[in-house]
């Protein structure tokens, strides 16, 4: 394989422009030309990883196969590229500093003063190149979190500047900015972009390509003006205007030849054809779907859809494969109770009870589950959602009215969900849950087996509590079956009520393992059950 090429994606003007989507879309296009691509995210915050961050701060915490609690952009990378990421794909300032300080304590710096330049920047550069050095990739795309000009992103930008110098044509910088439309003046404004590029230039980086986020398509003159003021080739001023789905973005970029421009600038041939058949079929299904499927997510972070990002995308992918538009409703679990449950859930085709932590909002989850179980609505419980299924069943069917998880009540007389043995004496909260992919043995004939069509699967986890096996027989003899079990530990991974049409809970998070070209089998099966109901 030729030398690995490094592409950096920085952002300017404001955050939340969708740098992750642009990075993933470019990655998709290079992959569709037959190149091996990986994408990584470098975040300037000091937390070691986002695992301890509240979803209000940072949206969903994504989990990689190797058990890293990661930024949600890694979810986009996997959904677009259909290849797994790992701990090496997400680095924070915290991890960089931790490594450097550990080295300093070991005496690695031989009496030198440890400084941001060169020690922190060297560590950043070393981390940027870890995946490239495996020899597995033609392209390593690195998204730099935050916005240029932020104090905390300076060491990252400086590292990119140095790498640019060291790698020459094997390195390319893409800068994403915003071109706002000022309604009162009926004009789009390029000044914020000019300022943002100037900031980058002051820090020693001249971007090779600009991606302009805009609401509507921009005129040629505007792109010409940006090119002229920012020292960027006119054909390298790419626009990323609003589209109905993030999965359209690769097509928008391909139409402007972005992948070709990247290849040309890096001295590579652009002869290989773009192979996007499966991707385009997916988009076609999305564009032409007429019928709708109405799914409600019951959770406590409903004001913040990013908190359930992977679930939203998994539902959307599965709905699209079933040629349905997804009508997603967020139902606030704190506002849900037995009195309003029919009003709020009655017209849904299916209910997904979301993952989560702590007591807040669980009573609403119980109300939703009781209603769903008694009315045979297709229902999917994920992680805490599955644990709530177990508790609700224990209380209402088994008559153990005080049943609970010890997470919610340490002193419950019926600990149907209990802390895992290995979690009991932990003193450190960061990175210490049961994380990452584990095997699960699926019982033949179950809904889970129908979905996966396999007796052995692997899915990703993020939890501290588990189904208490002491109650297994009682549950099973009363109609709730444990149909997925970890073969090494006996931990219950899947529960279902076979008498109902589709009532399945998983201790694992199947949403972390669902991509555009390979939707997750359980989400597919769930949507199939809900659309059967629509057909009735
Ligand atoms: N709070 C529960 C546990 O730790 C569920 C976690 C989750 O939903 N991710 O087991």
Give the strand content: 15-25%
- Mean pLDDT equals 95
**Order of neighbouring strands in the sheet with most strands:** 13-12-14-15-23-22-21-18-19
Fraction of residues in helices?
25-40%
SS field, number of helical segments: 18
Rough outline: globular
Task: Give the N-to-C terminal Cα separation.
Answer: 55 Å
Name the structural class: alpha/beta
The stretches of 5 or more residues where confidence is low (pLDDT under 50) are none
Rg: 25 Å
Question: In this structure, how is the largest beta sheet organized?
Answer: 9 strands, mixed
Heteromolecules bound = glutamine
Count of individual beta strands: 23
Q: Care to describe what's here?
A:
The chain is α/β, with parallel strands linked by helices and 536 residues long. 35% of the residues lie in helices and 21% in strands. The chain has 18 helices and 23 strands. The strands form five sheets. A nine-stranded mixed beta sheet has the order 13-12-14-15-23-22-21-18-19, sandwiched between helices. A seven-stranded parallel beta sheet has the order 5-2-6-1-7-10-11, with helices on both faces. The mean pLDDT is 95. It binds glutamine (GLN). The site of glutamine has 11 residues, from α15 and β19. Glutamine is lined by residues 355-357, 383-384, 387, 407, 462-465.
């Amino acid at each position: 394989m030729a030398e690995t090429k490094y592409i950096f994606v920085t952002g300017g003007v404001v955050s939340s422009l969708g740098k992750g989507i642009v990075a993933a879309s470019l990655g998709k296009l290079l992959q569709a030309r037959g190149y091996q691509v990986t994408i990584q995210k470098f975040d300037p915050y000091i937390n070691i990883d986002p695992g301890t961050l509240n979803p209000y701060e940072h949206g969903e915490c994504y989990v990689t196969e190797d058990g890293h609690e990661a930024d949600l952009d890694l979810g986009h990378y996997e959904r677009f590229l259909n290849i797994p990421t790992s701990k090496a794909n997400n680095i924070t300032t915290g991890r960089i500093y931790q490594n450097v300080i550990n080295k300093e304590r070991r005496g690695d710096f031989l009496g030198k003063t440890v400084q941001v330049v060169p020690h922190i920047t060297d560590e950043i550069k070393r981390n940027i190149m870890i995946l490239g050095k495996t020899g597995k990739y033609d392209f390593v795309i690195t998204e730099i979190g935050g916005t240029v000009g932020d104090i905390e992103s300076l060491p990252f930008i400086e590292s990119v500047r140095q790498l640019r110098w060291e790698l020459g044509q094997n390195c390319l910088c893409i800068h994403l900015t915003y071109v706002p439309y000022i309604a009162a003046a009926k004009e789009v404004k390029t000044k914020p972009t000019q300022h943002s590029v100037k900031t980058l230039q002051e820090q020693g980086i001249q971007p090779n390509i600009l991606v302009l986020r805009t609401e509507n398509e921009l005129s040629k003159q505007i792109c010409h003006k940006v090119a002229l003021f920012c020292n960027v080739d006119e054909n390298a001023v790419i626009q990323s205007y609003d589209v109905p789905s993030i999965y359209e973005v690769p097509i928008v970029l391909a139409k402007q030849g972005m992948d070709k421009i990247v290849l040309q600038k890096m001295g590579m041939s652009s002869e290989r054809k773009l192979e996007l058949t499966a991707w385009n079929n997916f988009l076609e299904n999305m564009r032409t779907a007429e019928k709708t499927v109405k799914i409600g997510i019951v959770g406590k972070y409903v004001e913040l859809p990013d908190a359930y990002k992977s679930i939203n995308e998994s539902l959307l992918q599965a709905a699209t494969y079933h040629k349905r538009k997804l009508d997603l409703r967020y139902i606030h679990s704190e506002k849900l109770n037995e009195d309003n449950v029919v009003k709020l859930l009655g017209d849904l085709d299916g209910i997904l009870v979301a993952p989560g932590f702590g007591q807040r909002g669980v009573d609403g989850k119980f109300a939703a589950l009781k209603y769903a179980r008694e009315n045979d609505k297709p229902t999917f419980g994920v992680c805490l959602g599955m644990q709530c299924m177990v508790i609700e069943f224990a209380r209402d069917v088994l008559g153990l009215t005080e049943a609970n998880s010890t997470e919610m009540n340490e002193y419950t007389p019926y600990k149907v969900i209990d802390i895992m043995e290995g979690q009991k004496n932990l003193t450190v909260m960061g990175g210490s849950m049961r994380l990452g992919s584990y095997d699960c043995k699926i019982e033949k004939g179950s809904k889970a087996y129908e979905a996966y069509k396999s007796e052995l699967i692997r899915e990703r986890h993020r939890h501290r509590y588990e189904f208490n096996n002491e109650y297994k027989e009682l549950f099973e003899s009363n109609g709730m079956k444990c149909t997925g079990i970890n073969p090494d530990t006996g931990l219950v991974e899947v529960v279902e009520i076979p008498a109902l049409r589709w009532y399945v809970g998983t201790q694992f998070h199947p949403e972390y393992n669902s991509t555009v070209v390979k939707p997750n089998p359980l989400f597919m099966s769930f949507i199939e059950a809900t659309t059967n109901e629509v057909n009735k």
